[in-house]
Design brief:
The complex is a heterodimer of chains A (436) and B (112). Chain A has helices at residues 10-17, 47-50, 59-63, 77-86, 155-158, 182-185, 204-208, 211-216, 241-249, 305-308, 327-330; strands at 35-40, 104-113, 117-125, 137-140, 145-148, 169-175, 254-260, 271-275, 279-281, 288-290, 301-303, 331-333, 345-347, 349-351, 364-370, 373-381, 397-405, 414-416, 420-424, 430-434. Chain A is α+β, with helices and mostly antiparallel strands and 436 residues long.
Chain lengths: 436, 112
């Protein structure tokens, strides 16, 4: 590889979020207390499973709204549960995921704030001896460009027909106390049978016949909050768009911030979404978009050879550099007559800080991977007034859930936390310290 | 295979045999077995949860002069237990038929 495809300088990130003197680089994190939060592999422990007899001795308690930690309160609970589920032959994980070893992840969480922003710093060790910055590609097979690389839970990876390639992620769910049950059961309120990679997964026909998902123009089933369904345990029983709008207006949704090691990290950002009737993106535009032309399936952009030394890579170059395709830095429109050979690959996603707009573009991030550990600082503005955001403010206490996706996986293949509290200068499990 | 290799294998097998013949309870981490079986979700060392605390159970056994055999019956029979709210549930059965392991867990519980 002649040059790196990434021209990601600190200046680029900082330009978008804060100055060197006041931004996350200026914070002396040694002075900010760290809270260890252990995340564990939940497998298919859906909202429905938790309320079934399979959740031995706890179905009734969960249904009446008891907190997970009212029973799961042992200091080593997360280690034990996650390891059990990944050990093999566990009813909550029907798929043997090749190489998946980490039933739990120790996450160090630090928080600080100033007049403008909250700074949330996360550190965790990755299972692999490399950062999970690669994401899916478009690969030329001699005739067509086809997606190359899939998350490890996908059948094509399970059967060895595709390699496992998917970005690492660090996610935070935030509730300001308005979502019934979130303070007790956290992220598990949003995880349901019928979703991708969950029991009784949806079919295309089911989705096409569903009034709510059709109205939303969605083609699959993702996270949702119980209140958005007539029967919370049946994704098909969606309420009307008008009823859901009223729930949103009342603030009964959770914010979902996802730092993505490929699709947002490359431009110093974290995405911004919310969970209500679906896992929605905030209004505006994300920092990433699909790079495949919907009609021709050809890439829309390729690398600028003049800047990075190549217009594509091949599979043997994976994990040997930063392979981000950034519109304003190293991308040019795709040339179908550029002498493509079998095995040439360009990223399946185009990334752009300049294109990110609106509420979807509010969160910034600074991240690095060193000696097997990610360090990610998410910068969240205080006082956001968008209708799809939870407003963080000094003195506020929020219910939060954390998740890490590690080792080329998505959907349920994460490690998650029991619900915690985050206080912005207020007493909580994790208290953000005021910066001078 | 050399004589040394054969001796080495015989010695390893002898050591392995010795280990396997050691009474199971001597190697049992009773607390870990208790938690692996999720017993701790209902029985806290000192606080009442869904079930009585281990301290309360131990005190009751002491008062009634019951021993670990009774505790083993309780953890293996799957009998109905009455909860604080008056409802009844089948008690969970420990996931081992090894009496030595059951005994170790019972003793550990009754010594809280």
């Amino acid at each position: 590889m002649k040059k790196s495809a990434l021209f990601l300088g600190v200046s680029v990130i900082v330009a978008g979020c804060a100055s060197m003197t006041s931004g996350p680089q200026a914070i002396d994190w040694n002075k900010i207390p760290a809270t260890k939060v252990t995340l564990f592999y939940p497998g298919q422990s859906s909202y429905e499973w938790l309320r079934s007899e399979a959740h031995a001795g706890a179905a009734k308690e969960t249904a009446r709204g008891d907190a997970c930690v009212s029973c799961h309160d042992d200091p080593k609970e997360e280690q034990r549960q996650g390891s059990k589920i990944l050990r093999g032959n566990h009813p909550l994980e029907p798929t043997a995921i090749a190489g998946k070893k980490n039933g739990y992840v120790d996450l160090a969480v630090q928080a600080a704030y100033d007049d403008k922003n909250a700074y949330l710093r996360f550190q965790w060790k990755t299972q692999n001896p490399y950062p999970g910055t690669e994401h899916q590609y478009l690969r030329f097979d001699g005739k067509e460009w086809k997606v190359y690389g899939f998350p490890k839970l996908d059948k094509v990876v399970q059967e060895g027909r595709q390699p496992g390639i998917y970005e690492d992620r660090m996610s935070i769910m935030i509730d300001d106390g308005k979502v019934p049950g979130f303070a007790q059961q956290g992220c598990w309120l949003t995880c349901h049978d019928g979703q991708r990679d969950m029991p009784k997964q949806f079919t295309k026909e089911d989705v096409a016949a569903n009034a709510l998902l059709t109205a939303l123009k969605k083609s699959d089933v993702r996270k949702y909050l119980p209140e958005t369904r007539g029967n919370p345990s049946d994704w098909k029983t969606g309420k009307s768009v008008e009823e859901i709008a009223r729930i949103k207006e009342a603030g009964r949704f959770v914010d979902l911030i996802q730092w993505r090691a490929h699709r947002s990290h490359a431009v110093g950002m974290a995405d911004d979404g919310f969970v209500l009737e679906f896992r929605n993106g905030d209004a505006g535009k994300d920092m990433f978009s699909g790079n495949a032309d919907s009609k021709t399936h050809q890439p829309k952009f390729m690398w600028d050879e003049k800047k990075v030394g190549y217009k594509s890579i091949t599979a043997d170059q994976l994990r040997k550099g930063d392979h981000f395709l950034i519109r304003e830095q190293n991308a040019v429109p795709f040339d179908p007559n550029a002498g493509w050979k079998v095995g040439d690959m360009v990223p399946d996603y185009l990334i752009s800080r300049e294109d990110a707009k609106g509420s979807a573009a509010e969160n910034n991030a600074v991240a690095s991977w060193k000696d097997g550990m990610w360090t990610v600082v998410i910068v969240r503005p205080l006082g956001l007034a968008n209708s799809d955001d939870k407003t963080l403010k000094a003195g506020g206490v929020y219910n939060v859930g954390f998740a890490v996706h590690d080792d080329n996986i998505t959907t349920r293949g994460h490690q998650v936390s029991y619900v915690k509290t985050l206080g912005i200068g207020a007493k909580a499990d994790i208290t953000a310290v005021k910066l001078n | 295979m050399t004589k040394q290799h054969i001796h080495s294998i015989i010695l390893s097998a002898a050591i392995a045999g010795l280990c396997l013949s050691t009474p199971a309870f001597a190697q049992v981490d009773a607390e870990e077995i208790f938690k692996e079986n999720d017993c701790h979700k209902c029985h806290h060392p000192t606080k009442a949860k869904k079930g009585p605390s281990l301290a309360k159970i131990a005190a009751k056994y002491k008062e009634k002069k019951l021993d670990e055999k009774e505790a083993i019956k309780h953890m293996t029979a799957g009998k109905k237990v009455e909860l604080d709210d008056g409802t009844k549930e089948d008690h969970k059965i420990i996931d081992t038929k090894d009496v030595a392991v059951q005994t170790a867990v019972a003793k550990w519980m009754l010594n809280r």
